[in-house]
Structures are given as C-alpha cells and as structure tokens.
Amino acid sequence: MLNDLTLFHKVKVKYDVINESGPQHAKTFQVKCSIYNPETNVELESYVASGTSISKAKQSAAEIALSQTKLEKPTAEQIKKKRSVKKHASKENQPNRPLSPLTKSRVSQQAEIELHKLNKRLLYDKHSQIEADKHHIELIIDQLKKFETTLLSMLGGHVEKVSPIGPFAKGLMLKTDKLVQLVVTLKSHPDYHTVKDLIDKLLQTDLFKKSENTESDKIYVDISSLASEYCFYFTSSCDEFEAKFQVLFTSDDLAESKEIVQGNYLFPLDHCTKLNLALKQQQWFENRFKNSPNSLVVLKLLRDMCKRDPDWHLDDNLLELLVNICFQRKNTQDLNVKFREFFELIASGALLLSEMNIDCKYLGGVDSGEVFCLRDFEGNLVELERSRSENLSRLAQHALRLIAFRKIDALFAMSNNKTN
Question: What pTM did the predictor assign?
C-alpha cells in the first residue's frame, strides 16, 4: 500500500483535483497524487489519473504511484515493524481522555484492594517483629510446668491452684515484656508466716537446689519484696534466655481481719481482691478471644503502639474491652478491617457517647436503641475523663489518615520497605 511506502520513507502523500470535465451527470475527474518531503515541502514525485468520481481517480493515481515510484519498496517484515512503531507512538501522543464512571469505579476498587493487601502485609510484618520469640515462650511454659508440679506435690495441702495472668497468660507477650506473673491461690487467706514457710520449703526442692551447681541453668530467688509487695521473684536463666517470674498469693476464702499477731499478718484484703479480679478477667479474656487469632494480633500491635507512644497510654484492660467491641461485630474477622475499626471506634467519639446519650453502630445501637457505654467484664461502667477521650479521638483520626494514605508504617515506626 502507498501509505506503508510513505511511512517507511518518512514522506507524505497528498491528492489534488486538477481538472474536471464532461456534463453534470457524467463528469470525469483528474487527480494528481504527490509524494513530498514534509519537512521541506518539496515535491519528490507526482502521478496523474482520471476517474468518474474523485475517490476512483485518487485510487487510480495511488496505484500508478505505487507501481511507478522510484522509492525502494519495503518488505512485509519492515512494514509490520513500522506499523507497530506508529501505533505505539500514536497511543503515547493521545490526550488523556476522561474515564467513564464504570472505569472510575473499577480503578477505585482496584486501588482499594491494593491498599488493603499492602496494609495487611505491613500488619503481619510488624507483628512478626514485635511478638515474643516462640522458642522463649516454650522455655517459659516448661519452667511454669516444673514450678506448678513442684509446688502442688510438696505443698498441695495449702495450695488450690497456680494460674498465670497478664500478657503471657493471654498470648499477648511481646519481645519487650520481661515479667511473667503467677498467682498462687491458697486454701485460706494468705498471711506472712504461711507464705514465708511455703517459700522456704519450695527453695529446698530439686527445682531450685539443682541450679546451684549448674552454670547453664540457674534460678535466682528474691524474697525481699515479700513484706512490701506481698510476692517474691525468681529469675530463670540459661544460655539461650532469661525470664523473670513474679509469684503472688491470694485465696477464694478471704478474711477481713488486719490484726498482727507476733509479727504475723494477713496480706491486705484489697491486694488479694485485685488478684481475684485479675483471675476473673483472665477467664473473660479466654472466653472472648481464644477462638479469634486475629484479635490477638490486633491486641499485640496496639500494645506495642501504646508502649512506644505515651500519648495513647491505654492500659491493657481498656485495650481488650475496645478490641472486644470491634470483634463483636460479625461483618468480618479480617485483620486489616478490625485494626482499622479500632481507630474508627475511638475517632467517632464513641468514648464520649455515654454522657452525650447517642446511639452507636458498634454496639448495634442504631437497631436496638441501646446507647453505647463502655463496660468492663463485670458490667461496670468504664468512664474516662472528657479531655482524655477527646485527645484519644484526635489521635485515632490521625491514625486513620495514616492508614488511608499508605503511611501505616509511620504509625508503627517501621522502616519504609513498601512499594507504592
């Protein structure tokens, strides 16, 4: 084709009607086909042909030009290559056309999917960085089993049970957590002499005595805090790991007496009551979160954030209550969604709703007519100072902006390894 020939030689072709003759109903048109240099406008070749219409005359002139031209005719492969280059160039030079509503919707959905995947990957990356080493957890569990077995076998007449509490017991232990708490529930209200006698007997068992001659596996005991903190500490140390344990004492059968007899005294009632409350809290936690691994991931991420950023200063119990509300919604258990919903809950001002008497979707208030109130595991109202609630709301709004604008790594103080 003539167009392929001109494209190959980077020249152009034009047609001009130079004459027409004959009656109105049977005219004859004469057309000149010119091949010229587009840069200089100099005509290189020209061919003339006639036809009963302008289009037929053009076609005849093009055929003559193609057969008689002195220009070198390209091969089929060369023509194919030139067409491909032209097509690509024309696409690049095309002005940006406005997207249709359907295309915009698809682009928006794709962008949202990509952001979801990116944030989810970053959440799991951060979780793997902060969670306690699994091997260390296994060593702690092994040490706890030995301690419990020794305690119950030697002192079973005084001891009801041994229960871990706190982050370790809940599966929320981070690399930065150094203390493991144990609550020993006695059959009667703990007093100084009884607990001191239990500790003395415990120190004579193989668990503590064998470490004296073993350099690679030692247990160090500290009972100096028994009189002031009503507990004692022991540190288990080996080549791989060191863990510190706090052993506290309580009972289900508590007494009111504070009388001191011959240097002996009951451990404070409020101290034991708090420990019993912590044990109930532990049971509540297991009932709510044990079948939801993503909730544990969210809690660990938030605990780490609160430890790093003093502006948040949310204690573990309050975090657990708020995350539990998010996971009560049955829309999804997706990690990314639930993590974002935590900040949506606080950013919405929900922590102020009890005093404002406004419904909240996070408790199904819109459907049930219930007013959102943050209550603890016993049903008691949890109230925060207004200024603190407002500050938390502002922090949560900022966190949502970071999540939306692909800056979730800034929320976690992560190095930016993501690709946009």
Answer: 0.69
